[in-house]
Amino acid sequence: MQDNYKLSYRQDIQVNSSHYDVFLSHNRKQKNWVRELAKFLRTQGLTVFFDEEDIRPGEDIIEALERAVESSKSLVLILSMSSVCSHWVSFETAMRVYTDVEGGRKTLIPIMVEKIDHSLVRLSMRRLDYVDLTDPETREFEFSQFLSCIGIPTEKVSLIKSWPEPSGIEPLFVADVNSIISRGWDGPKLLDELIKLDYSVIEGLIPDHEGQSSQWAPVFMDHPDTWRLITNSSKDIVGYWHFVPLFEDEYERARAGVLIDSEITTDKVRIFELPGQYDIYFVSIGILPKYRRSRAVTLLINSILDVLVELAQQGIFIRQLCANAYTPSGEALCKSLGMSYLRPHKDKGKIYCANLSDLLSFDILIERQELRRLYKVAAQNNS
Questions:
Q1: What is the rounded distance in angstroms from the CA atom of residue 355 to the CA atom of residue 105?
Q2: Which of 241, 352, 354, 372 is the most exposed place for a label (fewest CB within 10 A)?
Q3: Is there a contact between 25 and 90 (Cβ–Cβ < 8 Å)?
Q4: pLDDT tops 50 at residue 11
């Protein structure tokens, strides 16, 4: 019985083997270039599976992909930021990895068409050599190596019409103190980067207002729930926000428009890790100009709201907040968040203020049901 089973299994493999020379796994963001690649490979005499041409209308997509992956000599994975986040691409490559666990057949070939964070690539594929088309200086050599790998002699190489353009999708991530520690950074290193970003973002910023790394580092590291970073796939910091819960005297100075940020030291910041009501001063919120798009701004604001929910769940509530709108864009942000103008700052900027409870019915917060519920319960308990 076992021998018969093995024979029928081998026959099944023989019937299904090598129907395609190449299976092209990609995300739709690279569809135009992959279409050109499929045409090019066919002119070189290869049989190519390309989904938009080889899956018939009404055909079961998953079954078609399974058959094509199983019967392809090589699976070529087009690596981009959009493809590493694609469920379909993950499905296709997982099937290939499963059928060639040891990589002995060397049939999975990643082609990198835009720079990506390697930590986002599946663990099973990080051990493979990439064909790197991201550098124009070496692109033709890398492409010829790819063709050689799939059996096309290098003397037959001729360039395809166009090279892939980046998809334009760059994922952004929220990072906290754990991310900083895992990178081997300390407080001064973090603050060096943030101060550099501030000067890039805030027009007219001067050292007397900004302060120094040595001043801010203890404030950040002592109170890790008062800030979050926005990073890109290369782990560069592209934006952040930071507030400080001040003692009453210092907070009133902030409201009065006479507090200078460089005066804020760790002894003026309340211990924020205990349940209670706090007044906070927003020191900074900003994103590099390149990333000022809806998705990045939404991520930045949502990271603030997520922290507020986490704090409220621990009994830590914000009573009032104020900020110095240092630039016209800062002023626009304060207004957009529902804060009210109080007075000009003595040196530069305009002071805006709000009770957080009043902001809970504002447009940007109205869908945050859990945050509203927690603050409502707290208000009832305190009444």
A1: 64
A2: 372
A3: no
A4: no
